[in-house]
Each structure stands twice: as structure tokens, then as C-alpha cells.
Model the fold of this input.
Amino acid sequence: MRKAVAVLLGLVVLGAVAFMALTSPTAWQVLHGEPGMGQGVLADAGHRPDPEKGRLLFFAGGCSSCHAVPGQDDKMRLGGGYALKSPFGTFHVPNISPHKEDGIGAWTQADFVRAMREGVSPDGEHLYPSFPYTSYQHMNTADLGDLFAFLMTLPPVDGKAPPHDLPFPFNIRRGIGLWKLAFLDGHVFMPDPDRSAEWNRGAYLVEGPGHCAECHSERNALGAIIPERRFAGGPNPEGRGIAPNITPSPTGIGGWTPEELVTLLTTGETPTFDTVSGPMGSVVHNTAQLPEADRRAMAEYILSLPPRVGYKKPQ
Done:
């Protein structure tokens, strides 16, 4: 009996050690990238952050849609607080204004790059993937530096967002380390040399800062995008309605012309003279701020996606 108890305790200890090792942010770095990815890269490249370029990335990413203080007209006050409901609980979007105590004003560029690419905060905690770093990880370091520089030009906003409201076991933040090992691949966007510069620009915007797949894809039971269902639509992550199929399938946007998709990204008007609203209305408000060349590039890439049958709600 004593031997059995000793073996059981040993297994429990080994399991605890393995959990702590595998869920450490360091474990992900060892497996997927150089330690401190992003740190020092900006200096090595001699890049001087450009806030104006960062402004365009801010709109490409729709940062204000989630991080602006709810109910305020000024969408540049990024005090957070928006309650993002999900099947895993309610996430409260954080303050990313330049406030030094309540926002990210005390962060370095390297801190920001690591958060965007690895989902790790400056104090070494995993960030929940409700913050779509699975898309942002594709952004190049120079662009992330530009985006950070722009964010630092915005007004500091007092106050922290409430803590997340998550049931067990999702409230064990450390467990996100296992999720990352399974679903965060660490790939920065690499242009396809067989495609045009416009197509590659569109791919970068759609897959990276635009994070379009995060809403327009079906997810598995662990909340990760199902690769075969990418862009084919799926339940709204917030639980209200269905995000449509945006692949060129007859069940999606098959038959749309590039001009029609550019119009949607500019005015929100569809080829059937409907106007998008809700979360997509906010997306269009942001894409309308981009240069037309970027909207055209996004349209070219989206219309080149493999056609996929759209999501059907289970009966």
C-alpha cells in the first residue's frame, strides 16, 4: 500500500513539473523561435519607427473596435473595458492607451512585439488568445514598431479594465501555454515570390493585422481555427449570429468582382445594395481609412482564397 501511494505521489509530482515546464512561455520560445523574439531586432535593422505608418496599421487592425472605451465618441481613447463574451467566459479588453500605470505606456517596443507575436505580457504572463496574436504574429517587426509608435501618440486614459470572468479551468492562465504549443506556430509572414506584390500586400493585411480569419472561420472545441474551415464562416465568437463565408464559393462571395469587394471595404455596401452593420460595420469604418491600393490588395487576396462551402448551423 505504501509503495502504491509513493508511486502515485511521484506521478503527481512529475505531472506538476511537466505542466509547469510545458506551460512556461520559455517552452514555446525554445520550440518555435529565438528567445526574446523581437528584442534587439529593431535596433539591428536600424529601423526608425514611423507613427504615420503605424496609424495605417492601427486601422488595418481595427484596434479601436475592441480597445476604445465603450460608449465614448472618441475612438482614439483606448482605455479598454469592452466585455467580449465567448464560450469560455467573458474577457474584458484591456487598456492599451499610453497611460503608464493602467495602459501600456511603460512598455518597451520589445515588450509590445513579444505580446503581439507570442502573447506574453512584460511580466511574463500568458495573454489569452481572445487577443488574436495567432494573426498578429505574422506581422513584421518594423510594422509592429511603427504601430507601437502610433499608439504612444494617443491620449493616456485612466483606469484598468475589470479582470476576466472565466470559469474553471479556463481561469488557469498558465494552461494557455499548452494551447500555444498546439495552435501558435510562430510564423512571420513571408511573401510568395510567385505572386504579385499586390497579392502579397493583400495576404499580409488580411492574414496579419486585419486578422480577418479570426471571425470568419469555424473553431474547434478548444477555440482554435480549424484550418480546413478558414475563412468559410462560422459562429460569431461572441455568440451572436454567424460570420459569413468570405471565400469565393457560391455559398460565400463567389461571383463578386474585385470592384465590388473594394466597395464593401470602402462603404460597407454589398453588390445587392445591402449595407453591413454590427461588427463588420466597425471593420469597414477602419478599412475605409486605408489607401485604396490596400483595399484593392485585400480584395485580390480574398478572391484568390480556395472556395469552401460555408458554415451551416447544426440542426
Observations:
- The radius of gyration is 21 Å.
- The first strand starts at residue 83 and ends at 86.
- The chain is about 40% helix and 5% strand.
